[in-house]
Amino acid sequence: MKRTFELNFEDMMNISKKDLLLSISSSEGRTVMAETDVAKQPIVYGVSNPELAAAFGADMITLNLFDFDAPFIFGIDDKDLAISDASDMVNKSAEIQKILHRNSADRDYIRKIKNVVGRLLGVNMEPIPKNINYCEGRKLNKKNLEKASELGFDYIVITGNPKTGITNEDILNGIKEAADILGDKAIIIAGKMHGAGSDNIYDPKVLQDFSKAGADIILIGAPGTIPGLDFELCRRQISAIHETGKMALTAIGTSQEGANLNVIQDMALMSKMAGADIQHIGDAGYGGIALPENIAALSIAIRGKRHTYRRMAYSLRK
Prior knowledge:
Number of helices: 12
Strand order of the largest sheet: 1-2-3-4-5-6-7-8
Number of strands: 8
Order of helices and strands: HHEHEHHHEHEHEHEHEHEH
CATH topology: TIM Barrel
């Protein structure tokens, strides 16, 4: 089985859930995930943030704020509209609506996006509490889970954006629902990278409960990202996850994805020493993506320039 940083374009397009989990496990902590906010204009004109994250060394790209009711990725879907500011959005609203209608009816939409980005694609899905007003197309529910399976996402991430009030119980219930619907179609990643308007997770037992509920990979904050989460606590949490036979993902999701290179490198090395199987870097640098050089810095820190450059060069090899 190839390791994730050895997967080429064809591998990425056709890999099964079972083989992807084996590929991640075989990589010995050297898998890089980058999150991008697809509801924002990209930071570089003419190229989407997912493509940029891929170019700087990410193996897996997670789409944040993706709307299942109105699929649209800036930098890809608006390439013929030449939108540069808010007035363009208003003036070309009719054209945008046509694109949204077309995308909503396209069962191969995400497969086509994968063909552009050349990476494994996942999506954030949020188990929003009933008392929180939130966009329906971004919620974790039966309808959106079925769409995620149909569209061909490689994985989903059950977590919470800031101020959503998502609790540990919400995540636990979301895992159970996702496991019933997705089966062997997509990997389920679940956990918290910050409080999400509720509480941070410190108790390893909570993480084991996520695993037993059906999550394939458990998400926790990287050392130094949330108050009190140091290397030792991170190591204990990951050990508890591994005891259940599941893998662990450490996330930089507290806007530190826009920090200096040495901060990213320190977090990456501490996460690797703690036993992380995947390392995630979030979307809060500028304009819905980590600083691109920080994606590369994380990759180089945990797998060196040789494997980082391979991943960058494999971008669209068919």
